[in-house]
Amino acid sequence: MVYVIGHTSPDLDSVVAAISYAQLKNKISSSQQHQPAVAGEINKETGYALDRFGFSAPEKLDQASEQELILVDHNEFSQAVSGVEEAEIQEVLDHHKVNFQYGSPITFRSLPWGASCTIIAEEYESQGVELDAGLAGLMLSAILVDTVITKSPTCTEKDKEVIEKLARIAGIEDWQQFGMELFKVRSSVQDSSASEIIQGDFKEFETSLGMIGIGQVETVDVSEFDDRQEELLQELENMRQQQGYHTAVLFITDIIKEGSRFLVATSDQEKAEEALGAQLEGGVVYLDGIISRKKQVAPKFTSTFNE
Ligand code: MN
Ligand code: MN
């Protein structure tokens, strides 16, 4: 049994990549059974998309040591399921910056596209395996979320091409409209705690000054978070102190205005401001045009903090 698994704080792309890649593997190779798994609790839009297209959530794998794994949608061990150091990794399929070392030769597939599911859709195509409507709809959802409905600077021509194709197979006429639906589900925060909002899509980056944690929420209306701002800042500060982060960040991205409000708890405000290229006021600043953690925010923080 080989587990196909995405990163901790699983997002839609990592969950759907596990499901769709395990399914493809099972169709093209009969020698081993592939099982999708998740490395944490699934988030709201993931639950919504799974329901909508008739899938159930993959099994949660708490400990991966001694297991055979295919890693999807991540390659850094700091973002992987616990026990990954003692697991046998067979393959990696990802679209993030590469920070990976392994003691034996494996298949490592990394493409600078907007979603892991875009790479997997291309794999189906090149292996000549047809996608059914449900799986196409699920993969479409993942690509729309990861590329912020094609608005993210990480979105490529390939992603747009695959979105069109999957929407056709899934019978979804207006994929922009469908994407907005997903983001409305994603950003509905009324029933979430501050910690759930921050942890919903949270990544850690090791730097020479210390660990940085960066969470992101995408919304169609940033003002939804106005009432929660103090509480969120307090929670970031708690996380920083209790979990030993040098800096803990939540940025709330307005996908209509295409900018983000940053909430920052840090042990070195000057350094954080240098990374942001802006002054914080009470730990907060709005930056126009910044919407991607992967392409914009994380590289600025890691380069500034590794100087
Ligand atoms: Mn992801
Ligand atoms: Mn992804």
Describe this structure in words.
Helix 1 (12-28) links the parallel strand 1 and strand 2. The N and C termini lie far apart (43 Å). The chain is of the alpha/beta class and 307 residues long. Helices cover 39% and strands 21% of the residues. The site of one manganese (II) ion has 6 residues, from loops. One manganese (II) ion binds next to helix 1.
The strand line-up of the biggest sheet is 3-2-1-4-5-6
Mean pLDDT: 95
Overall strand count: 11
Radius of gyration, taken over Cα atoms and rounded to an integer in Å = 19 Å
Strand content range: 15-25%
Q: Please, how many helices?
A: 10
Bound molecules: manganese (II) ion
Helical proportion, percent range: 25-40%
What distance lies between the first and last C-alpha atoms, to the nearest angstrom? 43 Å
* Major sheet summary line: 6 strands, parallel
Order of helical and strand elements: EHEHEEEEHHHHHEEHEEHEH
As residue ranges, the low-confidence spans are none
Shape annotation: globular
**Structural class by secondary-structure content:** alpha/beta
